[in-house]
Write a structure and sequence with these properties.
The chain is an alpha+beta fold. Helix content is 37%, strand content 21%. It has 2 domains: 246 residues, Bira Bifunctional Protein, Domain 2 (BirA Bifunctional Protein, domain 2); 87 residues, 3-Layer(aba) Sandwich (Rossmann fold). An 8-stranded mixed β-sheet has the order 1-5-6-11-10-9-7-8. Strands 13-12-14-15-16 form a 5-stranded mixed β-sheet, sandwiched between helices. The longest helix is centred in the first third of the chain and has 17 residues.
């Protein structure tokens, strides 16, 4: 029986890996400008981390996590999102006790969710995300939004809209939850089974339901911005002012609550028209209580996540052409044992000075070696046989125009480095 990749997973083959490397290079360049440093966390954590951090009323925890018991009887979960693990590391490493703020990013981090695979969202997908700790002012909210938009623009994705909202804090959200509960209780018969459960445990999650009937109810539901406490209202107004200062266009969308329980105050989504109904390419917000909730000091936090597969799909739909890497510079075609040994020596010297070089390792005929080199798209081929070794001269062919010259065997490195 042929063994295939599990459903909802996909190889990043050698035909596509250069696209990922291109995006990753742009991310590293941009995050350096913003003074963010890379963090790498394990792909699995103790299940309790996500139950406490993400929230046990979320779809992620209730339905989508890959959880198993290891050989020591511990409950382990494959990473379903990036923030909780970064917060755990931030606390455990002692960085939380140092000077703040701390700016971090993670790149092409595997994320695992058991859900129906869809375009740009697989059961194993990869995320780029940023996390900032210890910055209370809304200026950092505007900064990470600016970073995300700048990256998308640099990658050739320009048809974007920014939606922002505030979902309040533990002071003002109880009143809003009470208003939501009252509104939805009067319309219980229209709710889907999942939302009936959410009504009692976490009314805010009702606004995030994608069922048509529930979405229609959400459109008329009370709006959180009408219930914000003075601090949250001031913070939201400051964010808008900072975005105005940066000439960033935005729309206030009261239906944005995000899918995870740790969010407070600012939440936002960046939406592209290039991928239809599933148009969100970046989402994030504040989580001012998460660090203390996971055992650290009371400290504000904010971040966003961006799916790499979805980003690639948006770029493709936008007609972005990612430049392919430079082809192999020179391929050595050999005939005979002595020629092969000489070729190995030459290749080692060329690679030491930064010239990409290769040779045949499959015992092909000379003619077949040239055909193979042509398929590789190499710029030059060098022919070495017994005659060339005796004369101390080798044939150098330009594979683009077919021009052929002879060069000294002893000066190959110097000639190819010109």
């Amino acid at each position: 029986m042929e063994i295939k990749a599990p459903r909802g997973t996909k190889d990043i083959s050698i035909k596509d890996s250069y696209k990922w490397q291109y995006i990753e290079q742009k991310i590293r360049e941009l995050t350096a400008l913003y003074h963010y440093q890379e963090i790498r966390t394990p792909i699995f954590e103790h299940t309790e981390l996500f139950e406490r951090g993400v929230g046990d009323t979320t779809d992620v925890v209730q339905k989508e996590m890959y959880t198993f018991e290891d050989k020591g009887g511990r409950s382990i979960t494959l990473r379903p999102e990036g923030t909780a693990g970064v917060v755990r590391s931030f606390i455990e490493s002692g960085i939380a006790a140092g000077p703040q703020p701390t700016k971090m990013y993670y790149l092409s981090a595997p994320v695992f969710r058991y859900e129906n695979p869809q375009a740009g969202r697989l059961r194993e997908h990869h995320q780029f995300g940023v996390e900032v700790f210890g910055a209370q002012d809304a200026s950092i909210d505007a900064e990470i939004i600016s970073l995300a938009l700048s990256l998308l623009n640099k990658l050739g994705v320009n048809d974007l809209s920014l939606n922002i909202n505030s979902i309040g804090c533990k002071q003002c959200r109880p009143e809003y939850n009470k208003a939501l509960k009252m509104y939805y209780t009067e319309r219980k018969e229209q709710l889907c089974p999942t939302c009936l459960e959410r009504l009692e445990r976490n009314p805010l999650r009702l606004l995030d339901c994608k069922e048509d009937a529930c979405a229609a109810l959400a459109a008329e539901a009370p709006k959180i911005v009408d219930y914000l406490c003075p601090e949250c209202e001031e913070h939201f107004k400051a964010l808008q002012k900072y975005l105005d200062c940066m000439n960033i266009q935005y729309k206030i969308n009261p239906k944005i609550v995000r899918g995870l329980d740790y969010y407070t105050k600012t939440v936002f989504e960046i939406i592209s028209s290039q991928i239809g109904a599933q148009g969100t390419v970046c989402g994030g917000g504040r989580y001012d209580g998460l660090v203390s909730q996971l055992g650290g000091p009371q400290m504000p936090g904010i971040g966003f996540g961006m799916g790499m597969e979805r980003l690639l799909m948006v770029m493709q739909n936008a007609g972005v052409v990612i430049p392919k890497p430079q082809p192999l510079y020179v391929f050595l075609c050999t005939m005979g044992k002595a020629a092969r040994e000489k070729a190995i020596s030459i290749i080692a010297q060329l690679r030491q000075v930064g010239v990409s070089a290769d040779m045949d390792h499959a015992a092909r005929s000379m003619k077949a070696q040239f055909k193979y080199a042509d398929k590789l798209g190499v710029q030059y081929t060098l022919s070495i046989g017994d005659n060339e070794l005796e004369r101390g001269m080798v044939s150098l062919r330009n594979m683009q125009n077919g021009c052929q010259t002879e060069i000294s065997l002893e000066n190959i490195v110097e000639e190819l480095c010109r």
